[in-house]
Structures are given as structure tokens and as C-alpha cells.
Design goal:
It is a single chain. The strands form ten sheets. Strands 13, 14, 15, 16 and 17 form a five-stranded antiparallel β-sheet that branches. Strands 2-3-4-5 form a four-stranded antiparallel β-sheet, covered by helices on one side. By secondary structure, it is mainly beta. The protein has a domain at about 90-335: Lipocalin, CATH 2.40.128. Strand 27 and strand 28 form a beta hairpin.
């Protein structure tokens, strides 16, 4: 390792030292609080000022707090002021790692495919945090044999104070196989909290991706049920080892169902109370690329959509899986496919748009919004029938798709360059552009915008 890289990872060891809880600052110390926000540590997604991390780091409103996680730390801010209330993490053991091991674990992330968000109930906040254990990397004369893969587990904290409640971290001498199922399973997406329960997709297998959904008590972390849903594959190298980490979409609650968009050629619905699979709906995934001998970096499967949870509009589920080229509309009660739409459909409905740039889906009762390099609004008369007429409006924003786009009231808020652009939902006209710094996350509430940009969380009145 050259001197520059060694220094960077030595500095990373200092950053990963356990953080103390930071209480909310009184009004007299507001300047210090401003300084604290400016140095928010988002390792391993920290980036240079003016350049956003590739990962989607979504702020979440939880009562009078706004939560943000970096997968190493969980931050809580006062929703009224955006001042830092407390910080928790990283999990114990990171400070004892050798620089090479630290490099392996933090360098194995797939930020462009991750959607990172915490969750919360009335009194507890929970996040999937990366533990300092995991598969070790291995190479031979510069040829990668096996890549280090991150391992994440659930950690819960008291929402008001940040006090640790429980976690599923294995012991420091974990062998990678033993322990309770909560300790063995790798959390592969952000958690979902529904009432007194927390749900999360997780995997555990070396030869395939065995996708499970697990349900735990939010108060104690005790397991209520786990259900195997789907076995599939992702990119592997010539030796049969994973070429990248598996990043799944967050789960979604829909009445008595939990919807799982597996990213493995299937969307499924499970019963909230029992975990019983209610229905499964298969789709054709984008084929995995063939691996040629002695490729240092095996080819990766192309993607169309950004990682996102499915949407529920009435009795219709809209799914845009990471491994699928189409937008899928499914019946919520049965999983029956109602319609699909691919790039050729968007070319016909929005001929003036750069359809190859569409990578996200937003929807309301009567409109489908497709976003990316351009944003377009397609009127929907019947969600069970799909789009049938041309675009209501199309707005070009730039050559680089935004990290975040959120609907709020009669407006659509989109991160663009160093600004958040507010679009009128009815016309697509730009109402205003707010200078924020380059954003990596955006939360829209009735009163405010919360923008995670340049290592700080900003609150902007609407």
C-alpha cells in the first residue's frame, strides 16, 4: 500500500473511534452546533466537498427527530432546528483493525446500488450498521480470487437519547457461521418498522443468494419469524465468488402484507404477523454477463433503475427492480401482473425525452412520474390499465441523473448539481432553485425540506 493510501486508512481508524453521544446544544452555543454540522462524518461514504457520494443516504422523519445513517453511524437531528441531537456508532471493533483489513471492508461497498436509510418507532430507532467482521479478500499476484464483502446487522437505540437498546452483532471472535440466526444473517437492505415490529431482508450463503425476510420485536430485538423467499445469483468471478455485494430494495408495508422486491427475479408478499408467503410474482431479470477467464474485474450486469422500494397506489403495486429492464404493475391482493412497460413504451409516450436517462419512478393517484436526466409526467386514468396517453409535460434538468427526487404536496423536489429544484406537479415549470451544496439525500415534509449535502443536514422552510 503506498504512503497516501496508508495515511488515508490510518485517518479512517481515527474516524472510526467510538463516538460519544452529543446532546442538543443550547441556544447560546448555536455557532458551535453549526460547526458540528459542517463536519458530519459520513464514512464510508464521505466525499470531497462539492461531490456527492454515489449512495442514496435518505433522511427519515421520526417524531421530533430526523435520522440519517452512514452504515457505520446513526445520527439524530432535532427536526425543528436540524441541530445534531446525538450520534451512535460505529459498532465496536473497528478501531482494532489493521489498515489493510479496513481497506478491504470499506472498499467492498457498492455505493451506486445502495439505498441507505434508518427506521424508527415511537421510542426506538434502528439502523443496519456494518460490523468489523466479514469475508476476507484474497488475491494472487494481483489477480483477485475473492473479494471482501461487508456484513451488516441491526442496531437499535433509544430515539430520545441515542442510548443503545440492543443489537445483533456477533462476538468479536465470530467464525462466520455460528450463532443465532439474527447474528448469522447479513442484512442486505434498510429496515422497515411497522408498529412494534422491525422487518428486514437478509441473506446467508456462499454459493448463491438465499433471500430471507426476518421480523423482530422492535423493543427487544427478539426474533418473531424468518421466511425463505427466493434463491438466486448475482455476478461472480471465474472462481465462483461474488464479484460485488448484494444490495436489495427496502421492504414496504401494505395493510396486512409486507412486500419484498428481491432483486432476484421475483416480487413477493408476506403476511405481517406470521411471515407466510401470500403470493410470488416472477419476472424476467436482465441476464448476467458471462465471465471470461482471468478477468481482473468480471463484467457487471447493466441496470436501468436505481435501487428503490416498490410503490403501492390503491390496489396496484409498482415495481422497478434493480435487475429488471421493465416497470411492473402487479395486483396487490394476488400478485397477478397487470401490465409492464419498457423503454419502447416511454419513447412512444414521451417522444421528446431522453428515455435512456429514466431511472426512478414516482407516482400519485392519477400520474406516473419518470425521472432521471429528464422528468416526465404521464397521466393515468386507471392504474390497473397503465399509461395510455402522451406525456403531460417533460422537463430536462441535466446530463447527470439526480441522487434524490421527492414529491411533496403540489411540487416535485429534485436534487440537481448544487441545488434542489422545485417543479410544479401540474405543469413541470421550475418554481425555484435552492442552493444547497451537492446533495446525497433529501426529505420532504409539509413544512420543510431536509437536505443532506456536503456533510451536513440543512433544514429549509417550504
Amino acid at each position: 500500500m503506498n504512503r497516501l493510501r496508508w495515511c488515508w486508512f490510518a485517518f479512517g481508524l481515527l474516524l472510526l473511534a467510538p463516538a460519544r453521544l452529543a446532546p442538543a446544544r443550547p441556544r447560546a452555543q448555536r455557532e458551535e452546533a453549526q460547526l458540528e454540522r459542517s463536519v458530519l462524518d459520513l464514512t464510508p461514504f464521505a466525499s470531497k466537498r462539492g461531490k456527492a457520494p454515489l449512495a442514496q443516504l435518505e433522511p427519515v422523519l421520526a417524531g421530533d427527530k430526523v435520522l440519517v445513517t452512514s452504515t457505520l453511524r446513526l445520527f439524530a437531528f432535532e427536526a425543528r432546528t436540524a441541530e445534531l441531537a446525538w450520534t451512535a456508532g460505529p459498532p465496536g471493533g473497528w478501531g482494532q483493525l489493521e489498515p489493510r483489513r479496513l481497506e478491504d471492508l470499506l472498499g467492498a461497498l457498492e455505493p451506486e446500488r445502495l439505498l441507505v436509510a434508518p427506521a424508527a418507532g415511537e421510542r426506538a430507532a434502528v439502523a443496519a450498521l456494518q460490523i468489523p467482521q466479514g469475508q476476507a479478500g484474497e488475491d494472487w499476484h494481483g489477480l483477485e480470487i475473492q473479494r471482501a464483502l461487508p456484513e451488516r446487522r441491526l442496531f437499535a437505540f433509544e430515539l430520545a437519547t441515542g442510548r443503545a437498546l440492543w443489537n445483533h452483532a456477533p462476538p468479536s471472535d465470530w467464525d462466520g457461521r455460528s450463532g443465532a440466526i439474527a447474528q448469522r444473517m447479513n442484512v442486505c437492505a434498510s429496515p422497515l418498522v411497522v408498529g412494534a415490529r422491525v422487518f428486514v431482508p437478509c441473506t446467508r450463503d456462499e454459493s448463491s443468494i438465499d433471500y430471507h425476510v426476518a421480523c423482530y420485536e422492535l423493543e427487544t430485538g427478539a426474533k418473531l419469524w424468518t421466511t425463505f423467499v427466493k434463491r438466486g445469483q448475482i455476478e461472480r468471478n471465474m472462481f465462483g465468488f461474488q464479484a460485488r455485494e448484494f444490495a436489495a430494495a427496502p421492504l414496504v408495508a401494505a395493510g396486512t402484507r409486507v412486500l419484498a422486491q428481491t432483486g432476484l427475479g421475483m416480487v413477493a408478499a408476506l403476511d405481517v404477523k406470521s411471515g407466510r408467503v401470500l403470493w410470488k410474482s416472477d419476472y424476467a431479470p436482465i441476464p448476467l454477463p458471462k465471465v471470461k477467464n482471468y478477468q481482473h474485474q468480471p463484467p457487471l450486469r447493466p441496470t436501468v433503475w436505481r435501487n428503490a422500494a416498490p410503490l403501492v397506489i390503491g390496489d396496484v403495486v409498482l415495481a422497478a427492480p434493480l435487475d429488471c429492464a421493465e416497470l411492473l404493475a402487479l395486483d396487490l391482493s394476488s400478485g397477478k401482473r397487470l401490465w409492464t412497460a419498457a423503454e419502447t413504451t416511454w419513447k412512444e409516450l414521451a417522444p421528446g425525452s431522453r428515455v435512456s436517462g429514466f431511472d426512478r419512478v414516482i407516482a400519485d393517484a392519477d400520474t406516473l412520474y419518470l425521472g432521471g436526466q429528464d422528468f416526465t409526467a404521464l397521466p393515468i386514468v386507471d392504474w390497473r390499465a397503465g399509461p395510455a396517453s402522451g406525456a403531460r409535460w417533460t422537463r430536462a434538468l441535466g446530463d447527470v441523473p439526480p441522487v434524490a427526487a421527492r414529491r411533496g404536496g403540489d411540487a416535485l423536489f429534485v436534487t440537481h448539481d448544487s441545488r434542489v429544484v422545485e417543479l410544479d406537479l401540474a405543469s413541470g415549470e421550475i418554481r425555484r432553485a435552492l442552493a444547497t451544496g451537492v446533495a446525497s439525500g433529501l426529505l420532504v415534509t409539509d413544512e420543510s425540506l431536509f437536505v443532506l449535502a456536503d456533510g451536513a443536514l440543512r433544514r429549509i422552510e417550504r
